[in-house]
Amino acid sequence: MPPSNTETPATIDLIGEDLLHNIVARLPATSFASAACVSRSWNLVCERVLSRPKLASACSFNPSYQAAVEEVLDKVLLEPIRPHFAIVSIGGSYESNNIDSEDDLEVLEEALELITAALGSKVQVITNRPSGIIGRDVLSNEFKEIELGFGEENDSILLIVGFLPGLKVTTIPLRKNYDEQETFMIDEFVTDIREFSTSVSGCNSPAAIIMFGDEFHGSMMTVMEKMDYAMSPETVIVGDTLSRFRCTNEAQGGISVAVALVFAVDRNKPPGIGETQFHAILSSGLSPVGPTYKATSVIEKDDYETWIAARREGSDENIDGETILNRVYDEIGDRIRDRQLCIGVTKTRKCSISQEKVGCMTSLALHGVCGNYQEYFVVHDVGIKTGDTFRFNFSNTNTALSSAAAVSSYLRSLNQGSNNTTGGDKQEVFGGLIFTSPDASFFGQPDVNSSPFLDNFPGVAFGGTFCSRVIGRSVLTPHVKEFQEPKAVGCCVHAYCAVYLVMSYTL
Description:
The structure is a single chain. This protein is of the alpha+beta class. The chain contains 10 helices and 25 strands. The chain has helices spanning 17-24, 29-35, 40-49, 65-76, 103-119, 186-201, 221-230, 321-332, 397-418, 451-456, and strands spanning 54-60, 85-91, 124-129, 132-136, 143-147, 156-163, 167-177, 183-184, 208-213, 236-240, 244-247, 255-265, 275-284, 286-301, 305-312, 318-319, 341-351, 359-373, 376-380, 389-395, 427-436, 461-466, 470-473, 493-494, 497-506. The strands form 4 sheets. A 7-stranded mixed beta sheet has the order 8-7-12-9-10-23-24. Strands 5-4-22-21-25-13 form a 6-stranded mixed beta sheet, covered by helices on one side. Strand 17 and strand 18 form a beta hairpin. It is globular and about 90 Å long. 45% of the residues are buried.
């Protein structure tokens, strides 16, 4: 019989697209990447497997630094994913292989190199040193909340990676230039974010930003107030104000004092790609107490604290700092050390970016109270002016628990949207992050922070960190009964709280 001129397809191509889809969807990320390079048809199948956004997270408590990095990488790359970004949070006493006086930064730099080498040079990577880790243990699959200084399992690494089709992601550093009186280059920072967003989406304000600031170099409050002014109200910003970090695109000609992980919608996204939404929700543990006061004298000390003399709003009589604090404690009803005090200061300031027209903005800034001296009481940070009004707030366990329950109820409504079977657009929650204040001695019970998300979205990737102060802009506040500040006044840096960043997808 003469040989046929018809080419016989390769045996692997005879299995059909559906079966091939089922096979490659079960591959680890590295094998999946290789499969996508086999042929054009295989690549199309792989594209369909990764047509939706994906978040993966893993936490290791291995005391060996190298082993911990390998464990979290193996876990997040166990399934198909093409990471656009990675956040690496390192807790405990891991030491660098390089013996150096700045071990923290050495460890962060080594982690940046290791993760970049594993994921690829195009992946935007941030490594940071938080006050604690929240994540799922790669070995036990147990979800843990570990604060530094509490318990014995302090050595920990959390890795979060994300694949977000339809979005472009980059890291943009905020520089501190020592040639200009050590000032933050905030205008340049905001302009860089706007230019990136405009080039990608045609809009000068991105969809979301995750920020890490190192307040060792100065307060992030001024930075956030200016970003709040410059960005669209729809732009969600979350993060940590006090966390040493290293990142892709490290600043040149200065030092990076903060970094923004910027998410912008791609106006040229392929057809068939849905929309990724970012939802920021605040759970507050603060309750207001006492009347509104007006600052009558303000003295800034060393750029880190402020002395304030004040009177009740509507009164002409000054009240010394000790008397004001005693009245606050009397109204609270105790002087328990866990009752932390702060003031919420309403600020109205002129503001502009670069050469733009000067505008006006009103914001709410929280300043922790650290004592009193003569006629003054003393608060952390600067930026308060004579004439500013403020109200005291105190940390309240009941408020925190009630607020966490309200957040859980709100997330339940998102979950019901995910399970919508009545037709129309279906919203699917695929991941979440949390930035929260340390609370081991505050709630009196474990895992209060993570339970609102885990109870509503079991099996969905989730992780985060403990922070001294939490960034949260354009946040929803389901629990508003205790927090009575005017709704029109925004607050970007929070205390005694948790901020949840929930990511959903609508096709």
